Task: inverse folding
């Protein structure tokens, strides 16, 4: 059985989020949650919430939560917020505030 959770329009860069997602892929859920909890950057906190949501979804479906592993973490690019910052001599610089769509899939597996 599989369980899935999706978080859309998260205000974290997809590139930075993928770096954290690689670390938890294939781990048992308990180890993945511990790793995310003590990783000191913003994408880790967002991923922590999505993994907890997927775990709660599995619990609602009467799946054995203790034997779950993180099967896959998919981080796609969401829409980019476009902003301007004033610069010298009347110029303006573009600022791109990137967003992410994060999908976590948990599956039953051997630890």
Result:
């Amino acid at each position: 059985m599989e369980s899935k959770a999706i978080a859309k329009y998260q205000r974290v860069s997809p590139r930075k989020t993928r770096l954290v997602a690689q670390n938890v892929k294939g781990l048992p859920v308990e180890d993945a949650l511990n790793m995310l909890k003590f990783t000191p950057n913003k994408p880790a906190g967002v991923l922590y919430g999505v993994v907890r949501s997927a775990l709660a979804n599995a619990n609602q479906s009467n799946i054995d939560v203790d034997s779950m592993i993180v099967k896959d973490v998919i981080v796609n690019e969401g829409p980019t917020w476009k902003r301007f910052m004033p610069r010298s001599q009347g110029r303006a610089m573009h600022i791109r505030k990137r967003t992410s769509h994060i999908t976590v899939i948990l599956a039953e597996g051997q630890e």
